[in-house]
Amino acid sequence: MRAVAWYGTEDVRVIDAPEPTIIQPTDAIIKVTKAAICGSDLHMYDGYIPGMKPGDILGHEAMGVVTEVGNDVRTLHVGDRIVVPFPIACGRCWYCDNQMYSLCDNSNPNAQVPEAMYGASPAGLYGYSHSFGGYAGGQAEYLRVPFADSDHIKVPASLTDEQVLFLSDIYPTGWMGAELAGIKQGDNVAVWGAGPIGLFAMKAAKVMGAEQVFAIDHVPVRLMMAERECGAVPLHRTELGMKGVQDALKSLTGGRGPDAVIDAVGMEATDPGLLGAYHKAKHTLRLEQDRPTALHEAIMACRKGGTVSVPGVYSGMIDKFPMGAVFGKGLTIRGGQTPVQHYAKELLQKVETGELDPTFVITHRMSLEEAPEAYRAFRDKSDGYVKVVLTP
Amino acid sequence: MASSTASHYRTSGGDRRNVGTADRVVSGLLGAWMITGRRRRRQGFGKVVAVASGVLLLRRAATAHSAVYERLGVSSADLGEGAGINIEQAVTINRPIHEVYEFMHDLTNLPIIFTHIAEVTVGPGDLSHWTLKAAPGSRAVSWDVRVLNDVPNEYISWMSVDGSSVQQSGSMHFTKAPADRGTEVHVKLRYRPPGGAWGFGVAKLLNGLTASGVGADLRRLKQLLETGSVATTEGQPTGPSPAELRDAEREQREARQSKSVPAHRGGAPLPTKTPTARLGEPMYPLKEPEPVVTRGFELDPAASRKIEGAPVPEVELERVLAGVEGVDALRPVAVEDEYRSGDDL
Questions:
Q1: Residue A300 · residue A246 · CB < 8 Å
Q2: CB atoms within 10 A of CB B124
Q3: Residue A228, min C-alpha distance to chain B (Å)
């Protein structure tokens, strides 16, 4: 089969690989009908995620039709059309029992690696390095789904692939970003990052009762989408500068600051100023694992007693973290990988009723064969790339 | 050996000495040499490293404590109780106590759980015969073990019989975890060789007889009891190695130069599953050409523009020709109309 595989920094190729087979009786195999490239895939593309090996198949946003099921699979049959949640969850451990699917105890065969880095291992992930299990990803013609009974979202024939594909990751992640921010009626919410996660978070924030939503980004196309699709107030980070953004947020909220802030940028935050240069230099030399400028700004802007929501992605250590501000202002920080399975039913319903149509983020549709070009342009944010959908 | 069941609950407490006398002497001499020895070109950073490691070695000699040994659960100390390998690990398994107890109470399951144990055969009465996995190049060690205590759903403990080549004792303690978390299992394993713990300890590193090794064993046990199998990616697809890709490119270039259609998809032999094609066999079924569509930001994402008259690239042709065992006649072909409607999620 054809598949997108990682071969080094900025080296992603479409290669031939064997088709997946049933390895455990709880597995299912799907023929992938649509896959997508995620902003977090770009961290591997840029060489910032350790634990990658040449030949690793990428992709954690996939959907398709079941072609094979293992002997112990009870709730799936050949021919079922499903979306695959990106965290691999066994459905039997205490974490899964308590809806914390992205913290599953049992799905990472290399659990000792994150245990050394973080103290304990979260769930395994598709196509996201050997630290998280080294599972082959979904930017391919076929995908093996372990724990298939727990890890599928059946979708009705009345919805197109594009309407449901994002249930795998970005739609629940954006939604969770807003939910963790604890938004109440009348709150003002500032979102750093107007990519797909930020855009979904902004829409969700409005649904949850936000009075105003502010979108902070560098890229004009994304700010335009935030304004037009989500009704957000666009704040152009490069034009305003760090201080300009902080001042704007203060004045637009009557001097108080936003009640909740969402960091939908993550570890490769860019800042054209001095602080950004410092972090970029350290990051390039691998003296620092993540770049925290967006998080830093979000913390500084948040009003006292407010909430900082971090849908991610962060991978390691950051430098110059304003812990004093967090403590002094009594902030709550919440975050984590999305327990997609927990949100699936609720968010699928919103698609079915038309309350939220996720297709608005799609700007590019390409064939799997063009993935290398798509990765590069998506990373450079050129040509108006916001979300790419691939067809194998 | 004066150990009794009570001693199994004695924590290491204040006495952290785990480095034996011979070990201390060697550490001390090595440390002193690192600090004072004159070596050519040892300057700058190299000197700092040498002095630092020398200081650490001297401290190890002085205090008879090694953090590394502690981490590994190894001791070269010649103090009665402490010598040898002492490992304590715990895991919480989301299954009822009796299920966990029954699995671990069956000593023949221990080799399934613990990497360092090769085999356990249950002998007459409360005796059993255990065999450790042999370190490479040495003979397997085995001895007889007697179960001392077996309280259902609470506690199992055992000890090697007197005169065994390896003195060994261990216990498993089961308690109900708080709230709905399942069962806590606390495992203590102690191995003491007849003499010279050092070599024994090092050899066992290779066999998983370390604190982290046993921790990983218990994690796999948890996976087994909670989900029925141990998570793995063995046998999953992966792309060819960079070397194989280079070979494939070279073959393609050569094939193009000789102007012949290669018998198989032009490239290096791929791992087993991908079939080789034979020209003349039915091409079933031809894949519907998907529109390669839409570049650039579009105001109406729903509109997609087909690129008219786009030639099917050579790669696509080759792929279709190369045979489609992957699209099996026996497998239902996935067609938009035939999707089942969603059940309860």
A1: yes
A2: 6
A3: 10
B238, A17: Cβ pair inside 8 Å?
A: yes
Are B236 and A31 an interchain contact pair (Cβ–Cβ within 8 Å)? no
What is the identity of the amino acid at A207? V
Cα-based distances in Å from B55 to A111, A253, B27, B32: 34, 58, 10, 8
Question: Quick one: CA dihedral B294, B297, B302, B305, positive or negative?
Answer: negative
CB contact under 8 A, A2 and B272: no
Measured distance CA(B127)–CA(A319) in Å, rounded: 58
Provide the 10 A C-beta neighbour count for residue A74: 9
Q: Please check whether residue B24 is in contact with residue B61, taking contact to mean a CB–CB distance below 8 angstroms.
A: yes
- Interatomic CA distance for residues A196 and A203, integer angstroms: 11
Whether residue A362 and residue B343 make contact (CB cut-off 8 A), yes or no, is no
Distance (Å, whole) CA B160 – CA B144: 6
Distance from CA of A36 to the nearest CA of B (A): 15
Instruction: For the beta carbon of residue B258, count every other beta carbon within 10 angstroms.
Output: 8
Residue B235: alpha-carbon gap to chain centroid: 16
What distance in Å separates the CA atoms of residue B343 and residue A157, rounded to the nearest whole number?
A: 12
Q: What is the pLDDT along chain A (392 residues), one digit of tens a residue?
A: 999 999 999 999 999 999 999 999 999 999 999 999 999 999 999 998 989 999 999 999 999 999 999 999 999 999 999 999 999 999 999 999 999 999 999 999 999 999 999 999 999 999 999 999 999 999 999 999 999 999 999 999 999 999 999 999 999 999 999 999 999 999 999 999 999 999 999 999 999 999 999 999 999 999 999 999 999 999 999 999 999 999 999 999 999 999 999 999 988 788 777 778 888 888 887 777 777 889 999 999 999 999 999 998 998 888 889 999 999 999 999 999 999 999 999 999 999 999 999 999 999 999 999 999 999 999 998 888 999 999 99
Which helix (H) or strand (E) segment holds residue B93: the answer is strand B84-93
Task: Find residue A220's DSSP bridge partners.
Answer: none
Shortest distance, CA A343 to any CA of chain B (angstroms): 11
Give CA torsion, residues A72, A77, A81, A83, to 10 deg.
-10
β-strands A364-367, A28-37: how paired? unpaired
d(CA A38, CA A374): 11
Q: Are the Cβ atoms of B332 and A79 closer than 8 angstroms?
A: yes
ipTM entry: 0.91
User: Considering only CA atoms, which of A197, A145, A143 is closest in space to residue A175?
Assistant: A197
CA A94/CA A300 separation, integer angstroms: 36
Q: Which residues contact B137 (CB under 8 A, 6 or more apart)?
A: none
Interface of B with A in 54-83 (CB under 8 A): none
* Contact assessment for residue A375 and residue A14, using Cβ atoms and an 8 Å cutoff: no
Instruction: Residue A312: name the closest of A263, A261, A381, A260 by CA.
Output: A263
